[in-house]
Amino acid sequence: YIIFAVFEDITETLQIKEELTQQWVQTKYKTLARIPGTITYDYDPENDVLTVDICEAAGNIRTVMAERFLNGGECYWLDCESMKIHEKVFKEALKAPKSGSMDYKIRIDLNGEYIWYRSYYTSVADYSGKVYRIVGRSDSIEKDVRLAANWKNRARKDALTGMLNHDATIEALKKRIIESGGGALVLVDIDNFRFINESLGHV
Question: For a Cys-Cys bond, which of 59, 73, 154, 169 suits 68, CB 3.0-4.6 Å?
């Protein structure tokens, strides 16, 4: 028996395909960045650079970059806890292609306040399975976070007096005892409080 085989080097073809895919991904996220208030980002692990595109109210795109992002570089727009979240998520996403989400706080302006955002990310790998990019989009969830905090606060307090309700009081006492190792509870009796109950409603 005689077996003939022809081998063809397709390295260049695969490289071109990867470059086209990368260009498509970048174009896609650049387009998404045109939505006001939206943040898109592109992390390059080879150079450890995070590029962030912020779409401002007027529709202008402002680009900021963070060099040595996962290796001690300065990133003024993330608070410490959010930076730790990014480090954990990105290092995990670099192991293999995956998609996910994370909530974090970001400061759009240097002198502005931190705002809650939710990010949806995807790590992109080449033909060998090595991740060469992490791309993502972030949208503000500040209103949702504040609304949830407001409802949680209202659920813990009496509507008339603004004081903690029974469950919240017990929780606060347990926390204080654990933190301080002890303490004292003072009960106060108010004379003629029945008049307040009858005129304003029972507390």
Answer: 73
pLDDT of 59 reads: 67
- Rounded to the nearest integer, the mean pLDDT of the chain is 80
17-36 exposure pattern, b = at least 16 Cβ within 10 A, e = fewer: ebeeebeeeeeebeebbeee
Using CA atoms, how far residue 103 sits from 38, 78, 81, 100, 143, in Å, is: 14, 12, 11, 11, 13
Residue 135's SS3 state is strand
At 157, list the tokens: 């307090």
Q: Structure tokens of 185?
A: 């509870």
Q: What is the pLDDT of residues 6-21, one digit of tens each?
A: 667 667 666 766 766 6
Residues 120, 137 contacting (CB under 8 angstroms): yes
| pLDDT tens string 189-203 | 777 777 777 776 654
**Calpha distance 138→101 (Å, rounded):** 9
Asked if 114 and 104 count as a contact pair (C-beta separation under 8 A), the reply is no
